[in-house]
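Quick start: read one record
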Amino acid sequence: MLMSMLRATLILLGTAAYLGLAVLGWGSFTAFFSHPALVALAIILFALSGVAFASGNLSPGVRDWCAWRLRVTLSERNFR
């Protein structure tokens, strides 16, 4: 539980720092958020940070069968 809280804190701090640098680059908070595209970018940034916190694995867990690679390697040697 402590590691997940630490991970969430670090993700949020890193995201806020990244967005803070972008805001500083535009000059001020109101100048940055006066552009609708930048507001959307900030929302997407925090949404992707939420996805980074969810540590799910999209792999189906099936190992790759490498026999076809052996056949390709052997057939390449025949053509040289």
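Helices lie at 2-26, 29-32, 36-53, 67-78.
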